[in-house]
Design a protein that fits this description.
Blueprint: H1 10-21, E1 25-30, E2 36-42, E3 47-52, H2 59-72, E4 81-82, E5 91-92, E6 98-103, E7 108-109, H3 118-135, H4 154-161, H5 168-190, E8 194-197, E9 206-209, E10 217-221, E11 228-231, H6 234-243, H7 250-264, H8 272-296, H9 301-318, H10 322-332, H11 346-356, E12 371-375, E13 378-381, E14 386-389, H12 402-414, H13 424-434, E15 441-447, H14 450-465, E16 469-473, H15 482-486, H16 489-492, E17 504-507, H17 524-541, E18 546-552, H18 567-577, E19 581-585, E20 610-613, E21 624-629, H19 630-636, H20 650-665, H21 668-689, E22 693-699, E23 702-707, H22 718-730, E24 733-734, E25 736-738, E26 744-747, H23 755-772
Bound molecules: 4'-deoxy-4'-aminopyridoxal-5'-phosphate.
Length: about 775
């Protein structure tokens, strides 16, 4: 039985060289992961590399390597293969291991070089392009192989090995990144040209000489052990993946390599958009395969150290809009850029908007932001500056999520029509949605917004109960329609409002920081719930019938409030005893945002009669839904048709389904729980150091930080909150304020918001709060 790795000592290697090649030399061992490589120095001073192959290596593959080396020999970039005394180019050691002797190339590994000027990277790309050019005419049966480093198998490798990554944050990042690349590029990749590629142009397989110390250049490309027949574009992608590690400007470094590569071996218009995804996929594959090796060699500390630069780079790359990467790469190749969307300067945009739009359409920030792109948890302004979006919960799975975009495009191309025709998209989405909700919530209605969904919820409640009156929470917002303004104290008690109509009854918001019952009181939830009992008793005494109680499960506009335990249980009991229905407005909190449940009501151990969904369920596409019981749906079926032209359209259902599948497949609820816990810890720590933080509340990625001037009187620090929001924006983070006094910082980011984003947010907030002093 052959040992996997050969174990020759230097004397043994020198002896082999003598016996097989008639070469008298001294040997020294070179580092190698799988094989044994010796540097041999002959008496004449001539140098060679003796390669003793790993036992797993097949003769066919070594033969392919030799053939490729001969094929590319005219480039003068790669080693030549030397024959044994009897003319063989693959020999066998007495141990059975295959042995080859290669010529030595001058230079030292690129890995040993700290400074890498763009000229060196461009030269690297050029040499690699020359190699691709030469390999384009090469083939060998052995390189058509099932090989886990082959990027054309990358998605399968990630799927198979990512579960072995121990660190949940890294595992999630790898799965999401590879998933996004697959959704964006998967189909186009399958069509790309293929050729023999070296497949491993990493820092240790590229040799560099610096005859002129100011202008180092690539002198050799070695180790063809990963050669495979794969995408041509994978070759530069792999080189870029390794060369950009720990570079402050990865796109710039990648562009330099590409400039050189493209000059020597032009990529096609179709290949360039795929490069950036392949760079990311290569790093994901590397993390996955390292995790698998780590399982086999748990004591090998080097494995995890060598992965550190990749761990650092993955979030950086994940923050780059793929279109921006494509543009950088296209311009590096001197190719035409897609024409920019027509745009006017920010000031003109503002003026034109004012001319044509209602004056009460507000803008965030005194100096408004003109955004041009969104990617996951980031927004880019019109000059390309990136902002961390820490409060927009509408693009729930991430701005421009490629899987959702693709679903919309595909369905838009095929068909977009209404619910009067049969189509499979609607029942699929409805079924998957109902599966996330407890019994007896089993019937869906689809509309186009949160407002429409709440309107419909009110109609359902009235149809079922025959009553009109409604209990609402103080500070609540449920939508912009005439009726919803009437049930939204945030509006009817705010500027321009005209108070509650007679059929609307306002209960206190269950705020255990500022409200009548405080956090130390274990009965606070029940007591807040009993305030609804009081309202209901009053209605009863006036013989008013109750249609229901509508409540944002965790009031958001009201100040990012998390009701104390037992609140909804008590509230729902009183409402139901009075014959009313319980409507949960989950527009802000659905789809795992709280980390604790898929819906916020789960944390209150209740099941509503009607659930209202909006914002996140279409990931930005206008989509709302109402889910209720069969009984209530039957009451609503009173002869009047329910129809919404766009509600439940084929495209909206395709988008809804893709969004839900994405949230579930990417395990965004667990992600929110984990990242939220770290964020809370960071914010709690800030609260211990900054008097102005009166309260930090929230779970998962639904968090509020309430600023006060005095921790006893709770005087709201509203001006300070506005200042903090501005300062954060100046430092590239977008946050908003909420609450009746606008003194609560709301943190409700797109769900891909990660640990590094949370750390940055906490550190930046720390600065901004210090500046207040
Ligand atoms: N309900 C709640 C809790 C909301 O926050 C909102 C919007 N902010 C709505 C309903 C209304 O949704 P839309 O703007 O989609 O009509």
């Amino acid at each position: 039985m052959l040992q996997q790795a050969p174990r020759f000592d230097v004397a043994g290697a020198a002896q082999l060289a003598r016996d097989l090649y008639g070469l008298d030399s001294t040997a020294s061992l070179l580092p190698s992961e799988r094989d044994q490589n010796f540097l041999l120095t002959a008496a004449s001073g001539e140098r060679f590399i003796l390669k003793i192959a790993n036992a797993g290596e097949t003769r066919e593959l070594l033969d392919a390597q030799n053939a490729a080396l001969s094929h590319v020999a005219p480039l003068g970039l790669c080693p030549r293969v030397c024959a044994t005394r009897d003319g063989r180019r693959i020999a066998r050691a007495p141990s059975g291991h295959f042995v080859r002797l290669l010529s030595w190339l001058p230079g030292s590994p690129l890995g040993g070089l700290d400074a890498r000027p763009d000229s060196l990277l461009e030269d690297l790309g050029h040499k690699l392009g020359e190699l691709s050019g030469a390999l384009a005419g090469f083939d060998h049966p052995a390189i058509h192989r099932d090989f886990h480093w082959d990027l054309s198998r990358g998605f399968d490798v990630v799927e198979a090995y990512a579960p072995l990554i121990d660190d949940p944050a890294l595992r999630g990042l790898v799965l999401r990144t590879a998933g996004h690349v697959r959704a964006r590029d998967g189909r186009r990749l399958a069509w790309q040209r293929r050729a023999a590629i070296h497949g491993d142009a990493n820092d240790f397989n590229l040799l560099v000489v610096a005859d002129d110390p100011g202008a180092p250049r690539v002198s050799g490309i070695i180790d063809f052990g990963d050669m495979v027949h794969s995408y041509t574009v994978a070759e530069p992608a792999i080189a870029i993946a390794y060369a950009v590690l720990d570079r402050p400007d990865p796109l710039g470094a990648g562009a330099a390599i590409l400039r050189g590569y493209h000059a020597a071996h032009p990529l096609t218009d179709d290949e360039i958009p795929l490069l950036f995804g392949l760079v990311q996929l290569r790093l994901c594959v590397s993390v996955c395969l390292a995790a698998s090796q780590q399982r086999q060699r748990p004591d090998d500390g080097y494995l995890s150290i060598s992965q550190e630069p990749i761990r650092r780079m993955l979030p950086t790359l994940a923050a780059i809009h793929p279109d921006a990467a494509e543009e950088a790469f296209r311009s590096a190749c001197g190719l035409r850029l897609p024409p920019p969307a027509p745009s006017v300067p920010k000031a003109a945009t503002l003026t034109r908007r004012r001319e044509r739009l209602g004056p009460n359409l507000r803008l965030a920030y005194t100096d408004p932001l003109k955004v041009a792109r969104g990617w996951m948890q980031y927004l880019y302004d019109d000059s390309g500056v990136r902002y961390l979006d820490a409060y927009n919960n509408v693009p729930h799975a991430g701005h421009a999520h490629p899987r959702i975009v693709q679903a919309a495009v595909d369905q838009m191309r095929a068909l977009n029509t209404n619910t009067r025709y049969l189509h499979d998209m609607i029942w699929r989405f409805a079924g998957r949605l109902c599966a996330t909700l407890p019994e007896p919530l089993a019937v869906c209605y689809f509309v186009n917004s949160g407002s429409e969904a709440n309107e419909l919820a009110l109609r359902l409640a009235r149809a079922h109960t025959g009553a009109r009156d409604l209990v609402v929470l103080d500070g609540a917002y449920h939508g912009h329609t005439t009726t919803l303004i009437e049930v939204s104290p945030y509006k009817f008690n705010g500027p321009g409002g005209s108070g509650a109509p007679g059929w609307v009854h306002v209960a206190p918001i269950p705020d255990d920081y500022r409200g009548a019952y405080r956090r130390g009181d274990p009965e606070a939830g029940r007591k807040f719930g009993d305030t609804i009992g009081g309202i209901v008793d009053g209605l009863r005494s006036r013989e008013c019938a109750l249609a229901g109680f509508i409540c944002e499960t965790w009031p958001s506009v009201g100040g990012q409030i998390v009701p104390p335990p037992g609140y909804l249980e008590a509230a729902y009991r009183h409402v139901r005893a009075a014959g009313g229905l319980c409507i949960a407005d989950e527009v802000q909190t659905a789809y795992g945002r709280t980390g604790a449940g898929f819906y916020a009501f789960e944390s209150q151990q209740v099941v509503p009669d009607i659930v209202v969904l909006g914002k996140p369920i279409g990931n930005g596409y206008p989509l709302g839904a109402v889910v209720t019981t069969r009984e209530i749906a039957a009451s609503f079926d009173n002869g009047m048709e329910f129809f919404s032209t766009f509600g439940g359209s084929t495209v909206s259902c395709a988008v809804g389904l893709a969004t839900l599948e994405t949230v579930q497949d990417e395990e965004l609820q667990a992600h929110a729980a984990r990242v939220g816990a770290g964020l809370r810890a960071g914010l709690d720590d800030l609260a211990a150091r900054h008097e102005v933080i009166g309260d930090v509340r929230g779970v998962g990625l639904f968090v509020g930080v309430e600023l006060v001037r005095d921790r006893l009187t709770l005087e709201p620090a509203s001006t300070e909150a506005a200042l903090v929001v501005d300062r954060l924006r100046d430092r590239g983070i977008l946050l908003g304020t909420e609450g009746p006094f606008d003194n609560v910082l709301k943190i409700r980011p797109p769900m891909p918001f990660g640990e590094h984003d949370a750390d940055r947010l906490v550190a930046t907030l720390d600065h901004a709060l210090r500046d207040l002093r």
